[in-house]
Amino acid sequence: MNEKYLSVSDGEKCPVCDHSTLKVTAREIDVPHFGQTLLYSSLCRNCGFRQSWQYPLEARTPHRYTLYVSDPSDLTSRVIKSNTASITIPELGFSLESKMSSDPFITNVEGVLQRARSTTQTLISWADTQEDKEKIEKLLSDIDRAIAGELSFTLIIEDPFGISTIEATNPKKLKIEELKSSEDAQ
Ligand SMILES: [Zn+2]
């Protein structure tokens, strides 16, 4: 992996422990499938707080990928998601906003559903009412049916930087649209 250090600043204020013990590093790295990427990482010597952000440097055309999943073999389609992309599954009422999940990942459709499942699972403990709890349980059982290949759904990835892609097992079930500008990628 090619990498280039751009800057290091030490002694920044840590957002967690408030000490001036935070070291922030900016690097340019070449990530397979994602291209040249700016990686910021911070690490606090005092409390161990650690965080990183990635920004793609090779902006491409904004794209929307829509995959229709209706067969268990569709679950093996490869999903390459950059941190600028959002994923939605309208039939499940599920969306993974780019802000919520800054980690880029490469997985398959089933892997996306597993992520959806674990995100949803954590919501249960936040549910205030029995009604909310039942809604979440219904969503979990829908996700499980989708993982088992018993539920058809649509997976949509929108990426204003056009880095994310879906490599469909059945290419006929994939629709690729170019978006005019990043404003269209909502
Ligand atoms: Zn700290």
Describe this structure in words.
The strands form 3 sheets. A 5-stranded antiparallel beta sheet has the order 8-7-10-5-12, with no helix packed on it. The protein is built from 2 helices and 12 strands; from the N terminus they run E-E-E-E-E-E-E-E-E-H-H-E-E-E. The protein has 2 domains: 3-56, N-terminal domain of TfIIb; 63-185, ZPR1, A/B domain (Jelly Rolls, Sandwich). The chain has 186 residues and is of the alpha+beta class. A hairpin with a 3-residue loop joins strand 2 (22-31) and strand 3. The relative contact order is 0.20. Bound molecules: zinc ion. Zinc ion binds at residues 14, 16-17, 19, 21, 44, 46-47, 49.
Task: Please write the CATH class name of the largest domain.
Answer: Mainly Beta
Strands ordered across the widest β-sheet: 8-7-10-5-12
Strand content: 35-45%
Largest sheet: 5 strands, antiparallel
Please report the distance between the alpha carbons of the first and last residues.
33 Å
- CATH homologous superfamily assignment of the largest domain: ZPR1, A/B domain
CATH topology of the largest domain: Jelly Rolls
Order of helices and strands: EEEEEEEEEHHEEE
Unreliable stretches: none
